[in-house]
């Protein structure tokens, strides 16, 4: 009888000493027990590649590595008995195990569609810390500002939030240690762009039930390589506007020839604007320096033609009252009109440069 009682006690003790991992899976899918609320979900983010930027559509495609860390004492185990300091799982095995434990349910608010080329790795440390690493490609929606094209800098913000838990229960944070594992690759696949850095900022999101939810914004700043656009954009515009110098300074040129040159320049400027808009969507339709130069270019060319014709008619009548004044005004306008246009174009370009 004593032997049976002793065996029963040993069985009960072994059941009580069973590790938390052998407990019912449903008991581990609620908020972690034994930790101070709100649960801190530490996040590190690396932008491995910027594959595409669509300025006018306000979209971009990024390859991202997202790392999440949180503490769950229910998953702690005896490292000496297990013979390892952490338990690693990858791929489908990691996804299946994630269904049996509590996860913060981190989402990317501005993500479009599903995650492509996704890979996952999961590590559970002996002291109960969980580390989840995801690599994937996806499309995102961004706010674009083309006012400074082609000297613009675009801020691609990834908004991470925990829609299942209000900020009283779980929050997203990033520490100095996490920032060491965050960043953006210096050589993206997208052409004509270079990354300037990655920064984090905390925010709050309001849920449908009027409760506040934690949000973390990771912003990648991309600068357009403006030097690549000088030959393609500014040189053609200045070449067309330079026709006005020939009209203003060419001796013996008839008025009808001047009119033909100016109208040809207007058509060339219109053709350039259509070409730019098809090649660089948004460069003409928005308030960009290029749009200002082309719009003022139309006015400038017409003004040159009108001044030249009116003053030429006045000068052609030596007996006229304003013949001498017209000649003096013409000599000044030959310098003033091109100089004013050049200053305005330079001002539009300098105003668009990043401060």
Shape: rod-shaped
Number of strands: 11
Distance N terminus to C terminus?
Answer: 89 Å
Strand content: 25-35%
The arrangement of helices and strands along the chain is HEEHEHEEEEEHEEEHHHHH
Q: What oligomerization state is this entry in?
A: single chain
Largest sheet: 7 strands, mixed
Structural class: alpha+beta
Quote the average pLDDT. Answer: 84
Which stretches are poorly predicted, pLDDT < 50 over at least 5 residues? 4-26
Question: How many alpha or pi helices?
Answer: 9
Q: What percent of residues adopt helix (DSSP H or I)?
A: 25-40%
**Rg over alpha carbons:** 34 Å
Give a summary of the structure in a few sentences:
With 355 residues, the chain is an alpha+beta fold. It contains nine helices and eleven strands.
Keywords:
single chain; 355 residues; alpha+beta; seven-stranded mixed beta sheet; 9 helices
Tell me what you see in this structure.
With 355 residues, the protein is an alpha+beta fold. 37% of the residues lie in helices and 30% in strands. The protein is built from nine helices and eleven strands. Strands 1, 2, 3, 5, 6, 8 and 9 form a seven-stranded mixed β-sheet that branches. A four-stranded antiparallel β-sheet has the order 4-7-11-10, with no helix packed on it. The longest helix is centred in the C-terminal third of the chain and has 30 residues, at 323-352. It is rod-shaped. The N and C termini lie far apart (89 Å).
